[in-house]
Please model this.
Amino acid sequence: MQKSIFKRYLGITMVIIVLSFIVLGSVMMVFFGSYWRGEKRELLTQNAKSISEVASRFLTKKDEENYTLETEVLKSFVKTFSHSADADIFITDLSGAILLGNYANSKLETLEKTPPKAVQIAARGLYEGVGDLGGVYPEKFYIIGVPMNTEENECVGAVFAATSAATVNAFQREALHIFLLASLTAFLSAFCVVGIFAFRLVNPLRQMSAAARSFGAGNFSVRVPVTSSDEIGQLAQSFNNMADSLSNSEGMRRSFIANVSHELKTPMTTIAGFIDGILDGTIPQADREKYLQIVSNEVKRLSRLVKSMLDLSRIDSGEMKLHPTSFDLTGTIFNTLLTFEQSIEEKELEIEGLEAVGPLMIYADQDLIHQVIYNLVENAVKFTNPKGTIHFQISDGIDRTSVAIENTGAGISPEELPMIFDRFYKTDKSRSQDKNGMGLGLYLVRTIIKLHKGNIWATSVVNEYCRFEFFLPKPQETPKLKENGARLKEGRGKEREKTKERPSLEGEEKRNEP
Model:
């Protein structure tokens, strides 16, 4: 890339410029030659006609058929016209014999007899040609001939005006010389300008290539300077953004590998130690149930870790597909809360916002939405302060269904808030409070919501609250959805009554205390 692109671009551009100069020069030479011939034709014709008109006044009729030209008086006119036009001017009779002439252009003393054929053509109106006039001239001349008529309009001879054809060649050579000098100057200027432009165009690509090689070696700190706002500048900016993403991904990957290694090693060590203790009798018979319970918890922890890793693999490979069905969203929320009943009671948490919520049918993937609710409730339960509050807000709009889960507690700092949905990301506070987390829960939540064409976002105030809110777009309601909603409404009353009887979930006893 370092050699080929720069040289190709510069070479092709210079070839195009040279070809353009050649075409332009050729057209210019043709145009100049045509222009010179046109000018000379007009000038020679005008002078020849002028001499013809003057000569007609100096014709004396010798007899009935022959005329005599008074050359002495006419000689000065011919000489003057010849020198002013820089042309040979000579008068001939119909046989081609030269009666009078002046040869300012050819510098000859005199000319031999003019070819009768040329005289005959001139006598008929106009003779125009390029040549030696039948050997009269030693080189090519541009010749114009016009008839010489008497006052009675009788043709008695011809007037010829000739100039050397070498004049046009000299004119063209001079014009070509000027054109070549101008072209050379323009070519050098264009070479410098295009060379600088090509270098500036290719240089960012060279830097990107070097940076890519550094990335391949594991160094993600290299960045490409952004020096413009055009396509190259945008490419450099995108490249830097990609480098930032790769750097973050690499950091998260290393952290993830370290965390996975630790998370796998710790429970496996614990499980192996307790099982060995039970097998070799180190652990007394009375304590075996206690330690078997610990082993069970560790196995479940490993299972959750493996499931998260499998879900992550499905997302990366694009295998996670939706299987939407109609189901009750509030029922999913209540069932999820029952899963965390023990933790809620241990921390004496208060659940708000579900007192008067009825069945709400949505059309989505039930298993995936359950995982979304599960992960959000799990986070809320983990990070809510003891005796704190978890508040639910469910709203059914025209085109969407929204769910918000807000918990009191330490919250999330503004610097970390934009990154909490990134893969493998864990805040420092979560590391101290959540020893089992892998930084995958919120990433999976956002991915599932995006698969449903929805969105999720978080707001937080440090040491006050943290709120997660998401929405799912609502498809066109079907009769089946209405039927399911009506059926669930009947049975939801009893379930709500049972739920209200749980003081750990709803906190009714606390609110009724004086």
